[in-house]
Amino acid sequence: MKMDEKIMIQDASEVDPNLLRMLNRGLEDIEAGRTLPHKEAMEEVRRIRAERRQARAEMGVAANA
Question: Where are the domains of the chain?
Fold first, then answer.
């Protein structure tokens, strides 16, 4: 690993190959337009979390009935 003005630079051989694949996939997704604006993505995350909370609450009620 080299130092470049206090910035650590790793050789590609030192990086987890799975991480490199994930980064490449992300770049491919961006190039292909398979992304959402941050605001939309966070709305989707909140929607999914709310659905999961609701499902857990309903399961808890059913289990205690």
Answer: 1-34, 36-65
pTM summary value = 0.50
- Give CA separation, 57 vs 45, 46, 47, 48, 62, in Å: 18, 16, 15, 14, 9
64 pLDDT more than 70: no
Q: How many contiguous H segments (helices) and E segments (strands) does the chain have?
A: 2, 2
Q: What is the dihedral of CA 15, 21, 22, 27, to 10 degrees?
A: 110
Rounded to whole angstroms, the Cα distance separating 24 from 17 reads: 11
Give tens-digit pLDDT for 13-29. 777 889 889 999 999 99
